[in-house]
Amino acid sequence: MFSERMPADSGKLRVFFDRLETALKLGAVLLALLMLGALALQVFMRYVFGQALSWSEELTLLWFAWLIVFTSAVGFRRMTHARMSLLLDLLPAVARRFAERLIAVLVLLLSAYLTFGAWHYFSETIDSVSPAIGYPVGFLYGAVLVFGILMAMFSIERILTAGQGLDE
To answer: 57 and 42 in contact (C-beta within 8 Å)?
Structure first.
């Protein structure tokens, strides 16, 4: 039941998730560059012209939230976050694969709960606007919604593939 055998269409699944990971990484780089540019412009305007920008901090906060979502999701997929694996390392291979899948199922359930709660919060705040720019505040809180979805998707990938070839 918990053998090393991969699903028949695991190649297509791997390609899809690899492309999603690449898009998240590119999005993170773009957001980091945008943040850097906005903050540099803010400093330049404040110290050279004596005029602070009214929008840079608010926009940088929005971009930072999404940057964290993208990089955290990639970090979860690749298991590059801090993780206690002492007990898992002591298990035989079959039991370890079972435990890894069980953990992925638990993360999937947590992600579903997070997504459900985030959807309610997102839908309540989408009509509110930010004070400086006036963008829908739901764009900021939508990051939590997307994070829950990404975590659920990467959990499903781990359940189906037992995380083979993903850990760094």
So the answer is: yes
